[in-house]
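Human: We require from you a protein record containing the residue sequence and its fold in token form, and nothing else.

Assistant:
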Amino acid sequence: MKIQQLYTQCLAEATYYIVSGNEAAIIDPLRETEPYLKKLKEDKASLKYIFLTHFHADFVSGHVDLAKETGATIVYGPTAQADFNFYQGKDNEEFIIGDITLKLLHTPGHTLESSCFLLLDEEGKEYCLFSGDTIFIGDVGRPDLAVTSSISKEDLAAKLYTSLHTKITQLPDEIIVYPNHGKGSACGKNMSSETYDTLGNQKKVNYALDPSLSQDEFVQKVLEGLSTPPQYFPKNAMMNKQINKDVNEVITKGLSPLEADEVVYQVAKKGALILDVRSVDEYIEKHIPKSIFIGLQGAFAPWVGALIKDIDQPIILVAPKGKEKEAVTRLSRIGYDNVIGYVKEGALDWEEAGYATEEVPNVLASSEALKTAPFFLDVRRAGEYEDNHINESIHVPLSEIFEGVAELKKKQTYYVYCAGGYRSLIALSILKRLGFTSVINIQGGFAEIAKNNLPLKRCPKSCPQCECHKQ
């Protein structure tokens, strides 16, 4: 028996690849099929089942393409409905893969079809639980993503309580819990950076498994403090119920090199967006005017999904040489399938064709100019801002940048910062695209600011009425 956790840091997502004998199963695959086909070939195994723990909202799964290429059966839990052929498993139904067994446990709560898969080893012993978004390490799945006119988040939270206490906590303490997500995912609020743990330890440290909690107390705890789900979540959930474009066709189309004149035409006539995915330093040094920066080196896909509202937006990439395929693939994982190509030779080709480039005004945190700067723009999350920030800074979280610009003046000079310089550059690129004429990036972000002598204001979270919160 072989179990591999294939963890994708950008999405904080775990896919599981299981082999026993010459048969294999994959749980919650990402969109692209090539890596899985390669593993199957290396192991000389045939893919028997593709298990989905639920209809994912934070990425588009490749189950339909993978089933078409391998002949494997797609399996969902009870109540699932979709446009493609799949097998609807029953609660406690067992599936044989070589010498092992996967047992479906229907655990509604995160969504109605949510299911976990309990692996029984060659001796029939309960070995591990593939828990999907039902239970994470340190947390449980948020119950507000599958709300409909007939079921509320409170109803789903109550179902999750029942699932945890009648199914999950009854399992042996020594089994390993393999969740679908880890720290950084928006599918929970308190996830650990650890990607697996024993159930026994989770019973001790996971607040949601506290046996003293009543159902009402559990519902209250699980629902409190939930952030607004990213706007692309419902779109991805819908795509996972449909038959989508073949991922190989999406990637092939996106790998078309475009001359500068063609880029200008696509932007002017087709409404294409130029998305620069290079490094922070490369974008600062030289970029195409009105391009948006979201670099591959950060939380690329989630920020694209949060900030590019139209999932069908035509996109032209400016990518590091050799990283074009990676960029197109990572966009396809969240359903941004309309990449029409990339700028051939990037900003260099753009200049050689006679078009202007721009650089980002950038200052060090130690710069004397900052000591007299009138307006600072902090684009970090609310919790980061509350912990510590520059005195009198304006706070507009990056996730709310389009809504927050109404508070800002386009001709005013703003010094923009985040924690380390990645998010501030995204915000700055958006502001420039929206017509702001004087936005300056603080290099190194708040990490560097805190080392220098700028006036800072600490804001205890226990003091929500302080002046800091009233800004």
